[in-house]
Design brief:
Layout: H1 3-34, H2 39-61, E1 75-77, H3 82-92, H4 94-110, H5 112-117, H6 124-146, H7 158-177, H8 180-184, H9 186-200, H10 207-211, H11 230-257, H12 264-283, E2 289-291, H13 293-302, H14 307-321, H15 324-331, H16 335-357, H17 365-383, H18 393-399, H19 402-418
Antiparallel strand pairs: 1-2
Length: 439
């Protein structure tokens, strides 16, 4: 491979990293701040997340006998896991989070063949409903951050509102007037610009960056040895199932873009790679991982369909994950700035779900009922988390999360109404524009 080709692959790899970077760092920031981690712990969480994103991408990019789908897919931390991880950490402690992630990862690896055979039970009405619920359930978190973050002393202050709405407006302006790759980076550019403005306002503390080291090695079980609790494990297995459903749609989209047909065996290899990524996330105290849809948009935009590019992106992510100072920069982003960006991202998740639902035949009353009941329960539990407060804790942890409740409802109602009938074809999720759903 000549030097020019190497540089082109490297530059395209950087583009993939930039396209997913905002989404990748948001999950550790949201979870870490909700669990009141120290600045040092938060920097570790961001850095290990970047590193594990890179390793997970490598696992998926290469098609082996048992592992990897062999498509140009980039993996990142899943938004689906945000509220379940916070709930598990608050009730059972951080070690229980990682015990549940490891258990869910092993479950996915073992059941990958089974998932590949029942994938037709997840038609567009299920996937579109699940994606919509994910976005709706996450929006309150973004709104709280716009005001300065939950329990903030200056919650809703004019400074916070000015910052958050300023970031939101700047992202919208970029989407309106920018073109090509710059447009696809609107959220990341908005976060950087908002943080710079916040620094001029004296609202950024740079000490975490100054104190962070230049290099570190991954440390297994950084937050202690994992504990295995039944409720959290079942919750995370459901999270893993939702991740599999989402990733299936992304695999189908990549297959179409790359003119590379995939079958049940390919899907099983892809699911095993994601399951192993879960296990690595649990061991190194990172996150559950899934395929990022916004990088599918970049494949379509660049017309470069080789896996060499995402392998390069994985290498860049691993390199960044070894440098705590890079991660520390992410930790200084004010909550109000994050809020302005996450409202856009979570709103785009909702939009992507609605777009998937456009392919559904709503002339069938059963499809209307699946969407109606699932969205109502998912949003209802998000708005009224005490609905199941009287249930035993092991059951409450499963049903008290709106994403889990809504997703289970969609899956079970689809089986109830449509089992034994002709299933709808698998969906191809919207990929035009790289800010679409990436949970």
């Amino acid at each position: 491979m000549n030097e020019t080709k190497k540089m082109r692959i490297f530059s395209l790899g950087i583009q993939h990293v930039l396209a997913m970077y905002a989404g990748a760092i948001l999950v550790p920031l949201l979870v870490g701040r909700a669990l009141n981690l120290t600045a040092e712990q938060l920097a570790y969480l961001v850095s290990i997340d970047l590193l594990t994103c890179g390793v997970a991408t490598w696992l998926q990019a290469r098609k082996g006998k048992y592992l990897g789908i062999g498509l140009p897919a980039v993996l990142g931390s899943s938004f689906v896991a945000v509220t379940p991880m916070i709930a598990i950490g608050s009730q059972y402690g951080i070690p229980a989070i990682y015990g549940s992630i490891i258990a869910a990862g092993l479950f996915i690896v073992i059941c990958a063949v089974f998932f590949s055979k029942i994938v037709k039970l997840f038609p567009p009405v299920v996937i579109g409903t699940v994606v919509t619920i994910i976005g709706l359930a996450l929006i309150p978190t973004g709104i709280k951050n716009m005001a300065g973050g939950a329990n903030s002393e200056n919650f809703g202050s004019l400074d916070n509102l000015a910052l958050s709405f300023g970031v939101l407006l700047f992202i919208l302006i970029l989407n309106r007037y920018a073109r090509g790759f710059v447009k696809s980076l609107a959220v990341l550019i908005g976060i950087i610009a908002g943080t710079l403005i916040a620094a001029l306002m004296g609202k950024v503390n740079f000490s975490p960056v100054q104190e962070a080291s230049w290099f570190h090695l991954p440390q297994p079980f950084y937050f202690g040895m994992p504990t295995f609790e039944l409720g959290p494990i079942i919750t995370m297995i459901i999270v893993g199932t939702v991740v599999i459903i989402e990733s299936t749609g992304v695999f189908m989209a990549l297959s179409k873009i790359c003119d590379q047909p995939i079958n049940e065996k390919d899907l099983a290899r892809g699911y095993r790679a994601e399951g192993l990524a879960f296990v690595l996330g649990g061991i190194f105290n990172a996150f559950p991982y899934n395929t990022f849809a916004q990088n599918v948009g970049l494949v379509q935009l660049s017309k470069v369909k080789t896996t060499n590019v995402v392998v390069a992106a994985g290498g860049i992510l691993v390199f960044l994950g070894l440098i705590p100072k890079v991660a520390a920069f992410a930790t200084i982003i004010p909550s109000a700035v994050l809020g302005g960006a996450t409202v856009v991202l979570f709103g785009m998740v909702v939009s992507s779900g609605i777009k998937m639902l456009q392919t559904v035949d709503f002339g069938k009353q059963s499809n209307l009922l699946i969407v109606a009941c699932s969205v109502s329960l998912g949003l209802g539990v998000t708005a009224v988390p005490d609905l199941f407060a009287q249930l035993p804790q092991s059951i409450r942890i499963i049903v008290s999360d709106g994403i889990i409740t809504g997703s289970l409802s969609a899956i079970l109602l689809n089986i109830f109404f449509n089992l034994g009938f002709k299933k709808e074809s698998l969906p191809v999720p919207p990929v035009a524009g790289t800010q679409e759903a990436h949970t």
